[in-house]
Amino acid sequence: MKKIGFIGLGIMGNPMAGNLLKKGYSLTVYDIVPGKVEEAVAAGAKAGSSSKDVAEKSEIVITMLPNSPDVKDAVLGKNGVLEGAKPGTILIDMSSIAPLASKEVAERAKEKGVVMLDAPVSGGEPKAKEGTLAIMVGGPQETFDEVKDILGVMGASVTLVGDIGSGNMTKLANQIIVALNIAAMSEAMVLAAKAGVNAEKVFQAIRGGLAGSTVLDAKMPLVLKGNFKPGFRIELHIKDLANALDTAHEVGVPVPLSSAVMEVMQALKVDGKGSDDHGGIIQFYEKLAKVQVRQQ
Ligand code: NAD
To answer: Hey, CA dihedral for 208, 213, 217, 222, is it positive or negative?
Structure first.
């Protein structure tokens, strides 16, 4: 079994690393927050003292960090992965970052003989815990074939989409669809509630029809309880939409609906709700309409 390094032990990284440990992989881990490393060590991992140290002790290095600058810092920065990695090391970045940043990091890795895959995920914390994430991968076919089983421990579906950067391009598409779905659900449910119709009954009535969706099934039960504990923070979704807007404008694609939802999320952030789950988008509509969508 290959020795694996895991960097970034947050909401997603912690359970993903946990699933690899449960399958018997030897893991060296690192996070800038020492408490997160201690938690993983209690679950059976070895503590690394830096990203460099993790890379020195691993054949495969997985990163699960917030955004492009964090990945650049952990991989290219001082005491980063590339300072410790031996030629032949495989770097799998599972963070959701800008596709252009994936390409940049992969170029720099190549100079050190390190091959990189971008492999962002969808499914959130519950699927990270179950090991049933959807994993979308960019990079060379032969590297993908080498690590497919390892990715399969964390995900129920593992798909090679294309060259490096394609994984994150796919993830941006995913994030546009999710953001717009949550906004549509919120707008509709606030309308129903303000008109005096029970939102829970609306949910039950429509979930089996064409308006039904994974988003509706995942988010409505939480909305009905007023539970906006993350999950996936609005701040992180703002990061993904910023990457989507930049990328869309670079390639010449206007994205009017994504821009509108971006502003909704910005308003929520200003209102102190940036750390809420993205299901909390409904709070924007609730405030406008002066009504709450809750279980009755
Ligand atoms: P998180 O903020 O909970 O975790 C990130 C971790 O990285 C933190 O523990 C932080 O201390 C650590 N970190 C930051 N910079 C570091 C560095 N330079 N070196 C080492 N550690 C560092 O975020 P998360 O929710 O786990 O998300 C991680 C990635 O997964 C993001 O790109 C996010 O968009 C994506 N994602 C999240 C979800 C979700 O539901 N939370 C779902 C799909 C994808």
So the answer is: negative
d(CA 231, CA 94): 17
Atom number, ligand 1, closest to the C-alpha of residue 231: 40
User: Sign of dihedral through CA atoms 75, 80, 83, 89?
Assistant: negative
Which tens digits make up the pLDDT trace of 114-146? 999 999 999 999 999 999 999 999 999 999 999
| Distance between Cα 7 and ligand 1 center (Å) | 10
CA of 50 to the centre of ligand 1 (A): 16
Residue 182 lies in a domain: yes
Count of other CB atoms within 10 angstroms of residue 188: 18
287 is catalytic: no
In whole angstroms, how far apart are CA 125 and each of 22, 121, 198?
Answer: 17, 11, 29
User: Which pTM does this prediction carry?
Assistant: 0.93
279 is in which domain, residue-wise?
Answer: 169-289
CB 3 within 8 A of CB 26: yes
Domain boundary among 108, 129, 164: 164
Distance, CA of 267 to chain centre: 22
103 vs 60: CA distance, rounded Å:
19
